[in-house]
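During the no-cost extension, the postdoctoral fellow (Dr. R.K.) reprocessed legacy sequence entries with the updated structure-token encoder. One reprocessed record is reproduced below for audit purposes.
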Amino acid sequence: MFYHKDVITLLKQAPIYQLLYHGDVNIIDRLATDIAKNNVTFLGLDFLKNYFDTIPISVKAPILDCFEPFQTITDFLARVLALLLLLKETANEMEKEYLFRFYTVFVQLQNLHATYGYIKDIKTLHQLFKQLMQSESISFQGEPLQGLQLMGVLETRVLDFDTVIITSVNEGVLPKSHQQNSFVPLDVKIEFGLPTYREKDALFSYHFFRLLQRASNIFILYNTEHDSYGSGEKSRFLTQLELLRKDIKQEIVIPNISTTKTIPKEILKNESVFIRLKELATKGISPSALTNYLYNPMAFYKQKVLRIKELEDVEETIAVNTMGTVVHDTLEHLYEPYIGKYVTAEVITTMETMVEDVVVHYFKKHFKNGNIIVGKNRLIFEVAKRFVSNFLQQEKRQLQDPKNKLKIIATEQTLSTEIRVEGFDFPIKIHGQVDRIDQWNGVVRIIDYKTGRVDDTNLKISDFTKIEELKYHKAIQVMLYAFLYTKHSNFSFNQPLEAGIYSFKNLGKGFLKMNFSSGRKSPDTLITPERLEAFMEEIKEVLKEIYDPSVSFTEPLDLKY
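Re-encoded structure tokens follow.
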């Protein structure tokens, strides 16, 4: 089995990638799409072979041979060399140069192994390969008698130039630092007359001053900044040169920094955009889409108008939204059989025995081919299971009090309604899916589950004109669910109506209700027709802005995330 990223990285190397076209479609793009779609983390050889059916045998054989099991290191090296020989046939000049360097290294490894046979496994081969590659380099090639010549210090020996530009003349670069990979200490080297860093410094010093001897124009550059490129200290050679010569002109060069005013991205609403917005009005706008618009109109434009989706990728570690989906589906599965019925503490006890099996089932459904047995995924699985268990335990404790009565009205119910906005000759559909609707001691509750943390301050709002603020976006969703429910069920308000959130990371606070009171006085949680009407007036103002042709989609400059 092969890790999917390693396979895609190899096959998307330019020389290999251009060999794997079938018509106008590259099979690697199709492979990568299917891997992401099916959430395949590890690939087998048979899985790969299915995508090479349309590729000529002369091309696919050397590529697929690299994935076949091998018996000896010699066999493996022969396969790599065969692949390199295939790639050189279609490579450009630059690619041929570095393919030749790779070929040279692998031939060297093959000869060494054939002679000594000391490479026993892939790990050893990899270590030797890395060491050999560190000594390889691709030289610049050019006409030696004209144009710009790029060369190292040692290449300049016995050559004279009219104009010399020397870069990176910093201490530690020219000359290099004194650190040497040697097991022989410095004092031992001195005692026995062995060469030390002093001889190397003297060599570079000679070449440096020899290079400057007959040049007419000399430019010496060094970095003054203390960063990853060095300490910012100029070379001792340069200090020595300053003492020898008085005609040196020094200049500090600083790049020009232009302070341009940031202009926010803006999309005007032309006819095609407005046609798409009308289609959206017919199809329906969800509460999350509205809050997305309030947070970033440009993101709303990309997702709802252009219909651009996020790039699908392999989910190796369970994503937050996947865990949230699993928790939602698990609770729906547990409570769905009791729709229209009263739930007791004994019923909750029965549910508790089912939690692990149901959570596993939905993880297998939403986390395709994923492993939840070990590692970080196991921890996330346990967290999801704990969320559900803690929620059930809380409800059971409440229901053990005979005064409390819980009746399930609906779970994961899809609601929708059409509203009229002044100034537009077409209705706008609002739709959403409510996690749970129940009746608690005679009070109808609209409930939204959140696996993230929500505080009661996020649901406390006395002035609906402030709903555009980020902290009230969850309140917008809950209130829209309440509005949709009242329209869907023709709710007469004969019973009290409340809406709120169960936050699984703040479960100790219980059911967090919408609170309409001002200040710190006793909470006012009842949803009335007047409050819903005032709330919807503000929502209509948001819809007016979305459908106003004169208001463009503009990206805010102060986005927090």
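The chain has a mean pLDDT of 88. The radius of gyration is 35 Å. The remaining legacy entries will be reprocessed before the final report is submitted.
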